[in-house]
Amino acid sequence: MFGKYRVLLAPMAGVSDIAFRTLCREAGADMAFTEMVSAKGLSFANDKTRHLLALAEGERQVAVQLFGHEPDVMASQAAWIEDMMGESLAYLDINMGCPARKIVSKGDGSALMKDPALAAAIVRAVKGAVSHPVTAKFRRGWAEGDETAPEFARLMEDAGADAVTVHGRYAEQLYRGAADWGVIGRVRDAVSVPVVGNGDIRRGADAVAMAAQTGCNAVMIARGAEGNPWLFSQVQAALAHADEPAPPSIEERIAMARRHARLLTQREGRNIVRMRKHAMWYMAGLPGAAAARGRINYCTTLEDFDQVFDDLIEIAREHS
Ligand SMILES: Cc1cc2nc3c(=O)[nH]c(=O)nc-3n(C[C@H](O)[C@H](O)[C@H](O)COP(=O)(O)O)c2cc1C
């Protein structure tokens, strides 16, 4: 199933909205995830939850990630998503990796790694309710040092998962330390369905190394793309053994930030507040960034952001 989808934008709550997906796709992401969506929230027809599923005009190859722990609710909401999204939907994924306390405390996300039977029941129920592929995204294991991912992956495959994604950290690790890519290879050996490798891809060479070391069928990128959609073009070039495009200039970084801000306002005015963290990421390491950071926290309109960006360009010119 990943013949066409080799470089994927990861699901990122609060980040992988229409604006960010648009920029990452333009840069070369083969497929993009929505932010994770609560099955329970959808079942209450919660507007905020449904809003997370809004797509860009003509957007295709979208994967939707559900979180929850009740097989029947997950199944009915997966069927609703399939109906609603039609051709835009590439596949449905179940979140079994989120380590956030408010998620885990309800038995969702990576808590499912502690209850493989329930995780398998969810995959089975969702699989029975939809005709699209169903996948599971999980971590190396729950407790640090207790690698359960290969066995867990086998159970998910037996339950009907069409592919699995592995992030090489334990849930207890949160985002600390380095991702272990060895586990991706061990999951690859354990199952016959496609395996997506995830964790710490920051440059084109990382994707090439992960693919070579693990035999994974696709790579998934999250934090490396923050403020850096260009990473997708670099990864695509590296995987194709072509020369990687040069890193963006300061002007290109600021131009991307401006475009990002505009895309956010097109959806909904209040979304512009989301631009604060993106702006910080685009500016990281630029001359004048430290001073601009404080101002960004007070930006509430497109004009506010543009003013900060204008000043950064000015400072960059003075430095060059
Ligand atoms: C801000 C943020 C939000 C995330 N939200 C989700 C999510 O909704 N679902 C999920 O499965 N993983 C989520 N993740 C985890 C990423 O998808 C990915 O597995 C992890 O960041 C490791 O990949 P990376 O090293 O490329 O960042 C999130 C990560 C970050 C940084």
UniProtKB/TrEMBL annotation:
Catalyzes the synthesis of 5,6-dihydrouridine (D), a modified base found in the D-loop of most tRNAs, via the reduction of the C5-C6 double bond in target uridines. Keywords: Flavoprotein, FMN, NADP, Oxidoreductase, RNA-binding, tRNA processing, tRNA-binding. The keyword ATP-binding does not apply. Coiled coil: none annotated. Its EC number is 1.3.1.-. It catalyses: a 5,6-dihydrouridine in tRNA + NADP(+) = a uridine in tRNA + NADPH + H(+); a 5,6-dihydrouridine in tRNA + NAD(+) = a uridine in tRNA + NADH + H(+). Residues 8-310 form the DUS-like FMN-binding domain. The lineage of its organism: Bacteria, Bacillati, Actinomycetota, Coriobacteriia, Eggerthellales. Belongs to the dus family. One of its GO terms (molecular function) is oxidoreductase activity. It is an enzyme of class 1 (oxidoreductase). It comes from the Bacteria. It comes from Adlercreutzia shanghongiae. InterPro entries: Aldolase_TIM, DUS-like_FMN-bd, DUS_fam, DusB-like, tRNA-dHydroUridine_Synthase_C, tRNA_hU_synthase_CS. This is tRNA-dihydrouridine synthase. Its cofactor is FMN.
